[in-house]
Amino acid sequence: MSNAPRLSARVPPVAAGVRAAWSQVPRPAHDWLAGVLGSPVVESHAQLGGFSPGAAVRLVCADGSRAFAKAVSSSMNTDSVRMYRYEGRIVQALPAHPSVPRLLGSYDDGTWVVLAFEDVEGRQPRLPWQADELALVLDTVTELGELLDPNPVPDCYSLGAELAAMANLWQELAADPPTDLDPWLRQHLPDLVAWAQRPAPDGTALVHLDIRADNLLLTPSGDVCVLDWANAGTGPGWLDPTYLMLEVQAHGGHDVERLLAEHPLTRTVDREDITWAVLAAAAMFEQRCRQPAPPGLPTIRPFQRAYAHTATTWLRARLPTWP
Fold first, then answer.
1. Separation in Å, CA 128 to CA 10, 134, 178, 212, 279
2. What stretch of H or E contains 115?
3. Is residue 14 within 8 Å of residue 49, measured between CB atoms?
4. Residue 280: pLDDT above 80?
5. Strands 66-73 and 205-207, how do they pair?
6. Percent of the chain with pLDDT over 90
7. In which band, very low, low, confident or very high, does the pLDDT at 17 lie, cut at 50, 70 and 90?
8. Domains, the chain, ranges and CATH?
9. Distances in Å between the alpha carbon of 310 and those of 17, 74, 88, 114, 187?
10. Is the pLDDT of residue 258 over 50?
11. Residue, of 13 and 74, whose pLDDT is higher
12. Where would I find the H helices in 131-202?
């Protein structure tokens, strides 16, 4: 009888930061936004969810036009400021496409960064993932994967170094194993460290790297809008459908191996490359879930702990010869 576990789900908590109020954004930024939109803002509606302490609002202007804006300051989280700046540069350079909301402008006074986008009417996919919505999203991932390979955005960071750093976290975990580390992981730490030394998969596509339900909007016209490009970089396009499967698996109800075997971006990828990517994700989640929560993000560590469980369970299923 096989020792490999059945894939099981441990549902992650909702991705949610403690978001700033739109009223905290300084007056000069409001004035800038009115200029960009061509009309003063008369209504703002806070949007919840997502791992950012910044404000996120849908706006209505005096002339009836609408926009979406998000804003963060370095006093809230310096990493978020860096990510907003990077995202603004990425989205501005992306080719026009129904799945990418248009950037209207960016504001940066050295402390506050504000990004203004066209407003998108839509909703997030339902969780657990529904088959029809998942198929629609996977089709969009295929379309974007083809559009963005080769990467049309200059001066993106390379995901190879990022992925290698993630995988090499197994060395840190092996040097001082957490007391609550999964027993199967503890038993195989030397093997995991050895696997992590393999070269990171490379590629030429612009990879979003964080496609999950709270970064997507399904529109009434049937489009899928992909939001939050702050983690994007150059690498193999098959990473996006692969890492989406972590969320799909976390909530259960689908055969992720079958989905990858059928998807155009993953069906011809070497099995060991996908296993290595899952191994790298498992290392990141196992290491980060045990760190103190960053400012304004109280649910991120429980979220990462749930994903550590999912990635570990999936990794174990992909390595059935390991006892």
1. 12, 10, 30, 12, 24
2. strand 112-118
3. yes
4. yes
5. unpaired
6. 88
7. low
8. 22-118 (3.30.200.20), 131-318 (3.90.1200.10)
9. 22, 33, 31, 34, 18
10. yes
11. 74
12. 131-147, 159-167, 169-175, 183-187, 189-196
